[in-house]
Design goal:
The protein is an alpha+beta fold and 94 residues long. It contains 3 helices and 5 strands, in the order ββββααβα. The strands form 2 sheets. It has a 3-stranded antiparallel β-sheet with strand order 1-2-3. α2 packs antiparallel against α3. The two termini are 20 Å apart.
């Protein structure tokens, strides 16, 4: 039986905002995740929808990139970028 690990990552975007991710990871899959920080996303509920979309997803760059592209296609991010999110999400593998 695989063990779940709680991982917390904080990343200060150069010239931008603070991005915080808390996630339960099991066998390199995201079981639960919370994305927060002092950045802005419009519409606001888009981050919650992204969190739902990331659950049970393998920590593979191509899969996460696809979810970010699809989930944030019409979302305005202020203080962070999709690439910043991808960078921090991939740190969950470490």
């Amino acid at each position: 039986m695989a063990t779940q690990k709680m991982k917390k990552i904080e990343y200060k975007v150069p010239g931008g905002k603070l991005l915080k991710i808390s996630a339960m990871v099991e066998s390199d899959k995201i079981k639960d995740i919370k994305i927060h920080g002092d950045f802005f996303a419009y519409p606001e509920e888009s981050i919650e929808k992204l969190e739902v979309g990331l659950k049970n997803i393998p920590l593979e760059e191509s899969k996460i990139r696809e979810i970010l592209e699809n989930s944030l296609r019409e979302v305005e991010l202020i203080g962070i970028s999709k690439e910043d999110l991808l960078h921090v999400l991939m740190k969950l593998k470490d």
